[in-house]
Amino acid sequence: MGAKFYNRKKIITAALQYYHLKKTFPKWKHELKMDIINSIANIKPNPNTKEYKVLFHFQLYKAPSVRVISPKLEKNGDQEVPHLHRDGSLCLYFKQEFDSSMFLVDTIVPWTTLWLEYYEIWKATGKWLGGGIEH
Predict the structure, then answer these.
(1) For the chain: N or C, fewer Cβ within 10 A?
(2) What is the DSSP letter of 105?
(3) pLDDT (0 to 100) of residue 36
């Protein structure tokens, strides 16, 4: 029998994630401690929406977490805000869609902007157009 080869993905370190975040978004507030990154950003999904202050939290080997700091996410009538995890973080992707070989600037950041766009549409129409599963 021959040797088995495995398709291993290269893990992106917290330091490299931090470097790319700072390079791509120099106006954001970034902090790196050990293998943990916290970035605070002001994101305006499009010119017709509010601006949101968002916290991106990344720890190597764990799923990134994104929370809206302000303005507070609000119900739409009697409908709870869709696609939030129990801890209040945004549900941005299915588990298999992100891993430690991906840059946050290419995945989590644009997915957050898109989530906020869907939130704005939901607030206006009562319909979540972002797909996903109910929580």
Answers:
(1) N
(2) G
(3) 97
Whether the CB-CB separation of 109 and 54 falls below 8 Å is answered with no
- The three-class DSSP label of residue 60 is coil
What's the fold here for domain 14-125?
Ubiquitin Conjugating Enzyme (3.10.110)
pLDDT tens digits, 62-90: 999 999 999 999 999 999 999 999 999 99
- For residue 44, what are its two tokens? 């305006």
Q: Is the peptide bond before 45 cis (omega within 30 degrees of 0)?
A: no
Q: Which residues of 21-45 are buried (b: 16+ CB within 10 A; e: fewer)?
A: beeebeebebebeeeebbbebebeb
Would you call 80 helix, strand, or coil by DSSP? coil
Helical segments of 1-135, H only = 14-24, 108-125
How many residues does the structure list for the chain?
Answer: 135
